[in-house]
Prior knowledge:
10 helices, about 75% helix
Amino acid sequence: MPRVSMREEIIDAAVTTFHARGFHGTGVKDITDAAGVPKGSLYNHFASKEEIAVEAIQRYGAARRLSELTRPGTPALDRLRAHFETLRDEVVSFGIRRGCLLGNFGAETADHHEAIRATLAAGLGRWRAAIAEAIDQAQQEGTVRTEANADLLAGFVLNAWEGTLISARVDRRDEGFAEFFTVVFGDLLR
């Protein structure tokens, strides 16, 4: 009888565990315990903790639903705001004790784990491109000022978001989110 693959369960558990505890705060045993599998099962699918982290980053990025930023049918600026409201609500649902896995890993591992850094760069690049596309669409719709480059605005919005998450986690308060929405959607883009 062939062995049942536990790969998906391991990746799901890795996303949850890394998001809650960080890369350095998570051991392989923490992931396998969360997945309910023996430690050897992880090594049947992944050569190292770094390799499972790369998969976890990719899975987390896929769950950000970036395609919703560019899907027609709703005004682009409304889609962009709804995207960040959904992310804010997720952070608040965790008691403001988890930020963005991409930002967390970026701060924690980018200088020490090249494969993780490269995966983060690609993920953040996709996110920035989706934001830029939404901003470009909003500019074409006439709801976002056109003097600024959409990609440049997208990079700033993404960096402002990640900074907002750090501030919210440090303060354990959600007031920074209101500042983000006021400045980005009230001042910067209009």
